[in-house]
Amino acid sequence: MIHVSQAAATEIARLRAKQQPNKFFRLTVKPGGCSGLFYDMSFDEQVKEGDRLVEVTSLQVVIDATSWDYVNGLAIDYSEDLMGGGFRFHNPQAVVTCGCGNSFSTTAPTVV
Q: Are strands 24-31 and 37-44 parallel, antiparallel or unpaired?
């Protein structure tokens, strides 16, 4: 299961209403970033075969099967500071995270 704070749900709803009012909120984990994986959030027109559709904080979130293994237990928050607003990810599965907060790894780095 994932958790989406009320602040994050409100910001996602605001973005969807502004850009893609009739689309699903999709959360995906993709290869890349400083630590090997990163979170990608987008809006999608459909739920594809193998996707999980979960309702969290009155928000329907679509997660593909591969990403689900990485985001199970994830908490998403949204906050604003002097540098602007942004989503914050707190993943109990992450062993390594980048300073940007969007990149992570579930395995410890190897020491050579």
A: antiparallel
pTM over 0.90: no
| pLDDT, tens digit (0-9, with 9 covering 90-100), for 80-98 | 887 778 999 998 888 777 7
Distance of CA 32 to the CA centre of its chain: 14
φ and ψ at residue 79, rounded to 5 degrees = -145, 160
What are the structural domains of the chain? 3-105 (2.60.300.12)
70's tokens: 């990485």
Instruction: Classify strands 3-4 and 75-81 as parallel, antiparallel or unpaired.
Output: parallel
- Residue 65 backbone phi and psi in degrees, to 5: -60, -40
